[in-house]
Specification:
Length: 97
């Protein structure tokens, strides 16, 4: 669904960069792609379904050697199944590091 405008303080930025999520005990690691990000949310495509409500430490790798990855505490808000076990995830950014 497309909208003529967004009701956000900051526009959603489209990306296509690697992301790693860490969550649970024992610690689980899930690889994926960050497809977009805004000031309060992040869109991901993951290789594994992470349950709704799960808080994860996210590292978005931008490929630059001279600075570290963007890191944040996120909470999974919705999941959209894709083919081959993959899923599209929307998450709220709770805290940035």
């Amino acid at each position: 669904m497309a909208f003529a405008y967004e009701k956000r303080d900051f526009e959603r930025v489209t990306l296509n960069t690697a992301v790693t999520l860490y969550y649970g005990s024992p610690l689980k690691e899930v690889e994926g792609v960050c497809i977009n990000i805004s000031d309060k949310g992040i869109g991901l495509e993951l290789s594994y379904v992470v349950p709704i409500g799960t808080e994860c430490h996210a590292k978005v790798h931008d490929g630059h050697q001279n600075r570290g990855p963007f890191q944040a505490l996120i909470e999974i808000k919705h999941i959209e199944p894709l083919s081959k076990g993959r899923c599209r995830v929307g998450a709220a950014i709770l805290e940035m590091f």
